[in-house]
# Entry
Amino acid sequence: MARRALLRFLGLGYLAVILVAPVSLVFWRAFEDGVGPAWDAVTTPAAKHAFMITIAITLIAVPANTIFGVTMAMAIVRRRFPGKGIVNALVDLPLALSPVVVGLAFLLLYGTGGWLADLPFDVVFAFPGMVLATIFISLPFVVREVVPVLREIGIEQEQAASTLGASSFQTFRRVTFPAIRWAVGYGVVLTTARALGEFGAVSVVSGRIAGKTETMTLHVQERFDGFDYVGAYAASVVLAVLAIATLLAMNFFRPKEGTR
Amino acid sequence: MGLATAYLSLIVLLPLAALVWYSAQDGRTGFWDAVTEPQSVAALKLTLVASAVVVLINAVMGTIVAWILVRDRFPGQGFVNTLIDLPFALPTIVAGLTLLALYGPQGPMGVDVAYTRTAIVLALLFVTLPFVIRTVQPVLLELDREMEEAAASLGAGPISIFRRIVFPNLLPAILSGIALAFARAVGEFGAVVLISGNLPFETEVAAVNIFGRIEGGDPVGAAAVSVVLLVISFGILLTIGAFRRWATRHDGA
# Structure
């Protein structure tokens, strides 16, 4: 019994020191001078603009990666094709790669002297580059959630549907999609969390032009570097609230043992 | 299918190809000079050592936390379980700021580790918290307790039960979790950049070193150090693949 109490104390104490204490303190710091200054800090034109940019990027990256993710998962599970191992590795790579490296890769590809530098619109230091970098960073999640579920459900039901005359689109809509929708939901939540919080890659490709290419996370750093701590903490609280909402959604969609 | 592959190539493969190609622009010596330049070597070394320390702590603490979440019963357990994913959902820059608020110069407890290597380890511990817990937890849930009961009835004590029965079963999961955490720690930027102070040779990690080179107008050097990180990432992914095959070696097919 003493051993159990010790383990509990160790585990929970560790979580308190590493996780709970720092996060609660940010809320405290943001509202130290009352709600007024914090509210003013997150309703400045720059903060509002940064918020809109973050939302806009997320609204493009998440649907793109969802459609790609489901398609890619179907291909990985249901088809044999040459280079499947490489495709698998490429899908996982964003999980293991530093965001700064990702940002640099886009900078070199689309920036001055890059292979795709002469596009008719700006990519680097502009909105398209930020979207591309965010898509890269948040790419694996839907694929990785959907693949194991597709493996599990097998192909008998789909074969039965098509023997009974269903088109491939009907089969997907009536048979496959209902089976994978929870996994897609969970993948979408993870993708959203990653896209909202992206910092390193966007920091490199955006050029961090305040009021123009600044996302919410970049805004936090910009405020902090400018010694506007209430501004930085208040913007952090907005992001933390979004993170907590994501957490609740994750809890809702998380695959539960034996209930699916 | 064709579209998905095209998307993958355009988003992932092409930028990385450009990165590798660019890193070799000054020839092999140019690449080698950038990578073996003392400041990059110091940054890479610090990154690898700090990440190694962090994953070792994670291996122990992550297993303990997974254990109390699965085998223990206490009030608020569901809440704690939800909380584990917070570092994943919270933007890294916010994580860095939160740690600086608590463990920085204005911290309420009088602990000030800002701009030291301890701060880097703390930041990396925060962002890598979920990995070992979330890989060990499902394995622990599935683990058949009859084995442990049999061992206990044969007179094994709790420590030898853990060492001889539970631990070997958890090991593949712990190793996968460690590998994921290591990959994350090696590349971490947002959580570290505010709290580490980024002093060259002292507290500058690899990702910050790359960022500094980009800002300082040395994209070729930045690309060279990036390629080193890229190779490390690929190596870790291959290792995780090997762990997975090892973990499922008895499952057949």
